[in-house]
Specification:
Structural class: mainly alpha
Number of strands: 0
Radius of gyration: 17 Å
Distance between the termini: 44 Å
Order of helices and strands: HHHHHH
Length: 87
């Protein structure tokens, strides 16, 4: 594979190793955290969190602490968001 950040060639296969950075085509965590993709997503997260008021932050924090809600119900959450946006 070729790293999306530094362009170095590296070996990765899911049978011998699993690492988030490698699974996203980065040769290391350093390259992952230094990438434009990571920085862009962090910026989106910051903007989202900044847009919430205290009550919304409290609810969101509670939902995040029950992480299986996001992992197991991603489709339902996205559907509800899209439903509200189309009202």
């Amino acid at each position: 594979m070729i790293c999306k950040n530094c362009k170095k060639t590296f070996h990765y296969c899911s049978n011998c190793d699993y690492d988030l950075a490698n699974s996203l085509d980065f040769c290391s965590d350093t390259c992952f955290y230094d990438s434009d993709i990571y920085k862009s997503n962090i910026k989106k997260i910051d903007e989202f969190v900044e847009s919430l008021n205290v009550e919304q932050l409290t609810i969101f924090d509670r939902m995040m602490s029950e992480s299986d809600i996001f992992e197991n119900y991603e489709y339902e959450i996205i559907s509800k968001i899209n439903e509200r946006l189309n009202d």
